[in-house]
Write a structure and sequence with these properties.
This protein is mainly β and 162 residues long. 9% of the residues lie in helices and 45% in strands. Strands 1, 2, 3, 4, 5, 6, 7 and 8 form an eight-stranded mixed beta sheet that branches.
């Protein structure tokens, strides 16, 4: 009878050493595969220096947008918000009404952007073009070539190489 408990103990240890062949080694990521934004392709459309000035500037682009965009935050004259939406990651600089004259400043690659009411940039999850729309007395000037455009609404599009 003394051999029975030892043999039961050996069987229990052997059973504990085995693993289920169907069990995954690591759980799946619910957000999907990770994207390295540094490896994503980008457009060359905004590499030549230019200035874009308007009341409002709206930018939409692919996941790499955050590595090409920067904005100056002025807590006295503007509010900054960032939120995840169904369309992607939305960021906004908005002039405070009580602040009076405010220049909201941002940069996309070599383009300097100035808006007087608001600048928004939406980073979409899907790869697609970079689109800039400037409204309200929009003015664009190429720095090196002297080119100029003035309209109530200006739109620029940079295609992403595939």
């Amino acid at each position: 009878m003394t051999n029975l408990p030892i043999s039961c103990l050996c069987l229990a240890l052997l059973a504990a050493c085995g693993s289920s062949p169907d069990a995954p080694e690591t759980p799946a990521d619910p957000a999907g595969p990770r994207v390295d934004v540094d490896e994503l392709k980008w457009t060359n459309a905004f590499l030549e220096p230019a200035n874009l000035i308007a009341d409002e500037i709206v930018i939409e682009g692919p996941p790499a947008l955050r590595t090409h965009m920067l904005a100056r935050q002025d807590s006295e004259g503007a509010t900054y918000t960032a939120q995840t939406t169904a369309k992607g990651f939305l960021q906004e600089l908005r002039a405070k009404p009580e602040a009076g004259y405010v220049e909201l400043q941002a940069q996309l690659d070599s383009w300097k952007l100035v808006a007087f009411r608001r600048i928004t940039w939406l980073e979409r999850p899907a790869v697609g073009p970079v689109v800039i729309q400037a409204t309200g007395g929009a003015s664009w000037q190429g720095v090196g070539n002297g080119a100029e455009k003035r309209e109530e609404v200006l739109q620029f599009r940079g295609e992403i190489e595939r």
